[in-house]
Design brief:
By secondary structure, the protein is an alpha/beta fold. The strands form two sheets. A six-stranded mixed β-sheet has the order 6-5-3-4-7-8, sandwiched between helices. It has a two-stranded antiparallel sheet with strand order 1-2. The longest helix is centred in the N-terminal third of the chain and has 18 residues. The radius of gyration is 15 Å and the shape is globular. 36% of the residues are buried.
Protein backbone atom coordinates (compact mmCIF):
# COMPACT_ATOMS: atom_id res chain seq x y z
CA UNK A 1 0.00 0.00 0.00
CA UNK A 2 1.23 3.47 -0.85
CA UNK A 3 1.10 4.67 2.79
CA UNK A 4 3.01 1.74 4.32
CA UNK A 5 6.20 3.72 4.87
CA UNK A 6 4.27 6.39 6.79
CA UNK A 7 2.47 3.84 8.92
CA UNK A 8 5.80 2.21 9.76
CA UNK A 9 7.13 5.57 10.97
CA UNK A 10 3.93 6.16 12.96
CA UNK A 11 4.32 2.76 14.67
CA UNK A 12 7.97 3.45 15.49
CA UNK A 13 6.99 6.72 17.18
CA UNK A 14 3.57 5.74 18.56
CA UNK A 15 3.98 7.58 21.86
CA UNK A 16 5.24 10.81 20.34
CA UNK A 17 3.22 13.88 19.44
CA UNK A 18 2.11 13.83 15.80
CA UNK A 19 -0.47 16.59 15.40
CA UNK A 20 -1.59 19.62 17.36
CA UNK A 21 -4.85 21.15 16.20
CA UNK A 22 -6.68 23.88 18.10
CA UNK A 23 -4.67 23.17 21.21
CA UNK A 24 -5.37 19.42 21.19
CA UNK A 25 -2.40 17.09 20.82
CA UNK A 26 -2.56 13.64 19.22
CA UNK A 27 0.17 11.02 19.19
CA UNK A 28 1.19 8.88 16.26
CA UNK A 29 -0.43 5.93 18.05
CA UNK A 30 -3.72 7.80 18.30
CA UNK A 31 -3.43 8.73 14.64
CA UNK A 32 -2.92 5.04 13.77
CA UNK A 33 -6.12 4.20 15.67
CA UNK A 34 -7.93 7.00 13.82
CA UNK A 35 -6.70 5.62 10.48
CA UNK A 36 -8.00 2.14 11.37
CA UNK A 37 -11.39 3.64 12.30
CA UNK A 38 -11.46 5.68 9.10
CA UNK A 39 -10.70 2.59 7.01
CA UNK A 40 -13.56 0.69 8.63
CA UNK A 41 -16.02 3.55 8.12
CA UNK A 42 -15.00 4.00 4.50
CA UNK A 43 -15.28 0.28 3.74
CA UNK A 44 -18.71 0.15 5.40
CA UNK A 45 -19.82 3.06 3.18
CA UNK A 46 -18.70 1.19 0.06
CA UNK A 47 -15.61 3.24 -0.78
CA UNK A 48 -13.23 1.01 -2.75
CA UNK A 49 -10.11 1.38 -4.86
CA UNK A 50 -10.65 3.80 -7.73
CA UNK A 51 -13.60 5.59 -6.11
CA UNK A 52 -13.53 9.37 -6.39
CA UNK A 53 -14.04 10.93 -2.96
CA UNK A 54 -14.44 14.62 -2.11
CA UNK A 55 -12.78 14.92 1.31
CA UNK A 56 -14.13 18.03 3.00
CA UNK A 57 -11.88 18.44 6.00
CA UNK A 58 -9.39 20.62 7.78
CA UNK A 59 -6.00 19.40 9.01
CA UNK A 60 -7.54 17.76 12.08
CA UNK A 61 -6.48 14.30 13.26
CA UNK A 62 -9.63 12.81 11.69
CA UNK A 63 -9.08 14.73 8.45
CA UNK A 64 -5.51 13.44 8.22
CA UNK A 65 -6.61 9.90 9.13
CA UNK A 66 -9.32 9.86 6.45
CA UNK A 67 -6.90 11.17 3.82
CA UNK A 68 -4.32 8.48 4.61
CA UNK A 69 -6.99 5.76 4.79
CA UNK A 70 -8.40 6.79 1.40
CA UNK A 71 -4.97 6.81 -0.23
CA UNK A 72 -4.14 3.49 1.40
CA UNK A 73 -7.33 2.01 -0.05
CA UNK A 74 -6.44 3.21 -3.54
CA UNK A 75 -9.13 5.88 -3.79
CA UNK A 76 -8.90 9.08 -5.81
CA UNK A 77 -9.12 11.93 -3.30
CA UNK A 78 -10.19 15.51 -3.95
CA UNK A 79 -9.36 17.38 -0.73
CA UNK A 80 -11.58 20.42 -0.20
CA UNK A 81 -10.57 22.91 2.48
CA UNK A 82 -13.05 24.81 4.65
CA UNK A 83 -11.83 28.07 3.09
CA UNK A 84 -13.38 27.04 -0.23
CA UNK A 85 -16.74 25.98 1.24
CA UNK A 86 -18.71 28.25 -1.10
CA UNK A 87 -17.34 26.30 -4.09
CA UNK A 88 -17.56 22.74 -2.75
CA UNK A 89 -20.64 21.87 -4.85
CA UNK A 90 -18.84 23.07 -7.98
CA UNK A 91 -15.65 21.18 -7.09
CA UNK A 92 -17.59 17.96 -6.44
CA UNK A 93 -19.30 18.34 -9.83
CA UNK A 94 -16.01 18.92 -11.68
CA UNK A 95 -14.37 15.99 -9.88
CA UNK A 96 -17.36 13.74 -10.61
CA UNK A 97 -17.13 12.77 -6.94
CA UNK A 98 -18.91 9.52 -6.17
CA UNK A 99 -18.67 10.06 -2.41
CA UNK A 100 -18.62 13.05 -0.10
CA UNK A 101 -16.69 12.55 3.13
CA UNK A 102 -17.17 15.54 5.42
CA UNK A 103 -15.27 15.86 8.69
CA UNK A 104 -16.88 18.29 11.15
CA UNK A 105 -14.43 20.98 12.24
CA UNK A 106 -15.56 21.02 15.87
CA UNK A 107 -15.72 17.37 16.94
CA UNK A 108 -13.98 15.53 14.05
CA UNK A 109 -17.12 13.48 13.38
CA UNK A 110 -17.16 12.13 9.84
CA UNK A 111 -20.16 11.71 7.57
CA UNK A 112 -19.90 9.71 4.35
CA UNK A 113 -22.58 10.00 1.68
CA UNK A 114 -22.94 8.92 -1.92
CA UNK A 115 -23.27 11.89 -4.25
CA UNK A 116 -25.45 10.27 -6.87
CA UNK A 117 -22.68 10.06 -9.46
CA UNK A 118 -22.89 6.45 -10.61
CA UNK A 119 -19.26 6.18 -11.71
CA UNK A 120 -16.73 8.93 -12.29
CA UNK A 121 -15.72 8.61 -15.91
CA UNK A 122 -12.70 10.36 -17.27
CA UNK A 123 -9.86 8.82 -19.29
CA UNK A 124 -7.33 9.97 -16.67
CA UNK A 125 -9.33 8.23 -13.93
CA UNK A 126 -9.37 5.07 -16.07
CA UNK A 127 -5.59 5.23 -16.53
CA UNK A 128 -5.05 5.74 -12.82
CA UNK A 129 -7.43 2.92 -11.89
CA UNK A 130 -5.67 0.56 -14.32
CA UNK A 131 -2.35 1.34 -12.62
CA UNK A 132 -3.75 0.26 -9.25
CA UNK A 133 -2.53 3.45 -7.60
CA UNK A 134 -4.42 6.06 -5.59
CA UNK A 135 -4.89 9.57 -6.88
CA UNK A 136 -4.92 13.11 -5.61
CA UNK A 137 -7.12 15.62 -7.41
CA UNK A 138 -6.10 19.20 -6.65
CA UNK A 139 -7.99 22.30 -7.73
CA UNK A 140 -6.59 25.63 -8.87
CA UNK A 141 -7.86 28.80 -7.27
CA UNK A 142 -10.04 29.49 -10.28
CA UNK A 143 -8.57 32.95 -10.78
CA UNK A 144 -9.27 32.68 -14.51
CA UNK A 145 -12.94 32.00 -13.86
CA UNK A 146 -13.60 28.27 -14.01
CA UNK A 147 -11.53 26.24 -11.56
CA UNK A 148 -9.35 23.54 -13.03
CA UNK A 149 -8.27 20.28 -11.50
CA UNK A 150 -4.96 18.44 -11.75
CA UNK A 151 -4.88 14.70 -11.15
CA UNK A 152 -1.73 13.33 -9.53
Amino acid sequence: MVTDFLLDVFRAHAGEEAVVFRGRSSTFGELLADIAGARAAQAAAGIAAGAVVALEADFTPAGIAHMLALLGAGAIVAPLAPASLARHDEFRRIAQAEFRLAVAPVDDAAAITRTGTARAEHPLYDTLRASGRPGLLLFTSGSSGEPRAALH
